[in-house]
Amino acid sequence: EHNILFLKGFMILFLSCLTIRLNFCVSSLPSSLKTLPLQGHFNFDQVSHAARDFGNRYQYYPMAVLHPKSVSDIAAIIKHIWQMGPRSQLTVAARGHGHSLQGQAQAHGGVVINMESLKVPEMQVYTGNSPYVDASGGELWINILHESLRHGLAPKSWTDYLHLTVGGTLSNAGISGQAFRHGPQISNVEQLEIVTGKGEVVNCSEEQNGELFHSVLGGLGQFGIITRARISLEPAPAKVKWIRLLYADFTAFTRDQEKLIFAESTFDYIEGFVIINRTGLLNNWRSSFNPQDPVQASQFKSDGRTLFCLELAKYFNLEDSDVVNEEVEKHLSLLDYIPSTLFLTEVTYVDFLDRVHVSEVKLRSKGLWEVPHPWLNLFIPKSKIHNFAEGVFGNILTETSNGPILIYPVKKSKWDNRTSVVIPDEDVFYLVAFLTSAVPSSNGSDGLEHILTQNKRILEYCERSHLGVKQYLPHYTTQEEWRAHFGPQWEAFQQRKSVYDPLAILAPGQRIFQKSI
Ligand code: FAD
């Protein structure tokens, strides 16, 4: 009994010392950070912005926000934390434009680096053979578009929405309707400058430090902070023919999508979306699409059926308008859509690429932008897309949610299997994106709880039916789930972590690795 009492006493004393020591580490940190010589500055008071994101569901407050002015600011802070070793609890999250969905760019009690403050290197466009642009990792894609257009050039691969940062999309993949041809954005990067989890600044490319280069692409921020990226460019068109066609038959819809992604001199952009149980079709389409024949479009009634809309774009310059018209007509004549449902419009290239921003402005004005966004993005193997559609559209989902449901195929051959991104093991796979907005305080079908339950049912259905689905912009809470997500890639992912960020300082909001204490 005496021994047990002694042991208890010892344990209490030991734990108290440990707590005091940890508290000392944490409380002494702000002052140790303050002493770092920086060109930028820390903010310790106004940090609430860094605890929010587009998903609007998770809020973790950091201890400080760094507004870097140089790459060495970022390197200095990470090196400082790295040198403190495992006794410091501090973690670091790069925050791009904060358009994550579940707190991925947040760092609870840690340091958030506001990447948009990093204005170096100044954007520079190289216009020779194989043109490219060098941009800061915190640069917005919309700014890259405008700057490269001044030279008649533009990046090849996009996301649907351009008010996202280079570092943010390259940490995931960056996919849109151009991906079938050019691959995702991570397939269109030539060089990166990275600050690793040890605070080292490393330049990398396929040829130089290739392992780090591939790790970071699609690496969910786990291996380093992207401070500069070299992005390849192509000549930019002036205008875009933007086309929408409707299908009632899912088989015909996907057959045509798959035909088009392999066709020669095909469209430049191929996407599609699902319309469930809608009547006033035109009003519900994404708002910046104004067909040339709005009367005909508005007369089309879906009668509550599930419809599938194929969305295409063909780039052109005015001087080659005739040739392009012929090409477009030729391709359309081979498709199997409902004959009266060909809707076409012509817009400038910039208006086409920046189309979702038009919706943003409208939604913001109605207070509907900053609502919870319980999005679900899935990659589905081509061989299972019909099973998926059967189980989900019109079954688990009986009405179109508040927001579009995108669906389009891409080719695996355009993805580099050395990167960290996880995709299905099949030559063609689909992105299906449920881009839902929840109406705050609603208990109905547009309320957050209802949508989350629906997402869960979709995931359970995929699991039960062994569809081989992978999440895009993945979100899990346990390491077991992450292991399952990565599958055979897990060992390599873990190994890369142990090389580039062994203390698990970076991107804690992804909840893949815990910083060891
Ligand atoms: P953040 O949310 O700030 O960060 C995302 C993750 O990357 C975090 O873990 C963060 O720590 C890390 N990170 C950020 N910057 C860096 C850096 N410089 N170096 C290393 N790690 C970094 N995605 C598509 O692929 N296609 C689409 O069409 C598409 N459309 C979208 C439309 C909207 C309206 C929204 C809100 C999102 C869309 N997305 C799309 C998803 C988007 O690509 C991701 O949410 C992306 O992470 C957002 O970029 P961000 O700059 O806001 O990154």
What is this entry, summarized?
The protein is 32% helix and 21% strand.
Description of the molecule:
This protein is α+β, with helices and mostly antiparallel strands. The chain has 3 domains: 2-115 and 501-510, Uridine Diphospho-n-acetylenolpyruvylglucosamine Reductase, domain 2, CATH 3.30.43.10; 124-235, Uridine Diphospho-n-acetylenolpyruvylglucosamine Reductase, domain 3, CATH 3.30.465; 239-472, FAD-linked oxidases, C-terminal domain (Vanillyl-alcohol Oxidase, Chain A, domain 3), CATH 3.40.462. Helices cover 32% and strands 21% of the residues. It has helices at 2-34, 71-84, 141-149, 166-170, 179-182, 210-216, 250-262, 281-284, 294-299, 321-333, 349-353, 355-365, 385-392, 448-464, 479-486, 490-500; strands at residues 41-43, 64-67, 92-95, 111-114, 124-126, 132-136, 153-155, 189-196, 201-205, 224-235, 239-247, 269-275, 307-316, 342-348, 376-381, 405-411, 428-434, 470-472. The longest helix has 33 residues, at 2-34. Bound molecules: flavin-adenine dinucleotide (FAD). The site of flavin-adenine dinucleotide (FAD) has 37 residues, from strand 3, helix 4 and strand 10.
Task: Label this structure with key terms.
Uridine Diphospho-n-acetylenolpyruvylglucosamine Reductase, domain 2, globular, four-stranded mixed beta sheet, 21% strand, Vanillyl-alcohol Oxidase, Chain A, domain 3, Uridine Diphospho-n-acetylenolpyruvylglucosamine Reductase, domain 3, 16 helices, alpha+beta, 3 domains, 517 residues, binds flavin-adenine dinucleotide
